[in-house]
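User: Fold this; tokens only.

Assistant: Input:
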Amino acid sequence: MAIFNFLSNDLGIDLGTANTLIHVKGKGIVLNEPSIVAFDKYTKKILSIGNEAKQIMGREHGDIRVSRPMRDGVIADFEIAEGMIRAFIKKISSNSLSTRRIVIAVPSGVTEVEKRAVRDSAEHAGAKEVHLIYEPMAAAIGIGIDVSQSVGNMIVDIGGGTTEIAVISLSGIVRVESIRVAGDEMNNAIMQFFKKNHNLLIGERTAEAIKCEVGSAVPLKEEVKINVKGRDLVAGIPKTIEVNSAEIRGSLAENVSQIIDAVKRTLEQTPPELSSDLLERGIMLTGGGALLKGLDKRIRMETELPVHVADDPLTAVARGVGKSVDNINHYSRVFIRKRTF
């Protein structure tokens, strides 16, 4: 049975590196869970997905593998990704009628091969019609920008695998830069910091929690201290150490600088007429990375432009694919065109 044959509604999917969000036409966002799969290493049978799989990450035994089939915003493990989509669809479905259309958001730096992999995944899943949309375009639509206007809007969408910086006008992307520095790289930077400076091994979940709790791009009004649990790399036993928010900020400094440099490069390449629009309208931050404390202030200091964090930045892309699937004819111009050879 085709894996999308459970829904009568058209779907919008933000198939993200960190989280998968599904919008059902007429119902809104009905699923928002981590893009994580736990499966039997030998049979490839999926045991759990999403929140349930995240709970066992780092605690699994040798017969179970916990995997993230999405890397840098695209499918890294085709078979497991299809299984994950199938399981998510089953989770939200209540009937057995087929899906006609699906809109999927992809990074702007995606290759033709990667686009084909995403399309194939949805088509194998039973979708009759598949449309792709670039993530910054979806984010702009999701936060209520009229992308069809002849004015410039800059979106900086910081997800799990990629940061997308785009200047949008007339339903198209005028300038764009996609860098594979985002939430995952920040987590990795925190893990490496503890390994190099404290001989402490911590897991990805712990690193993410530290980032969300005390991570920042500028000095905090009041620096805070936290206790971090991990494994001592020298003694090999569990250990707790105390660190402060300034140390965590230092571990994230390179990643933050790379994002800001990409924003500056995009601004340098923006046509002057659109640059004048950005002076007035500023920069919109979306994606989970937009919630890093002080990032908007840091970009404002570096660019001297107004910087705004979108309302509910985590769901901006999902809301955008949702709007586009709800009114597919109106947004047809923003979809990625298939290349003909």
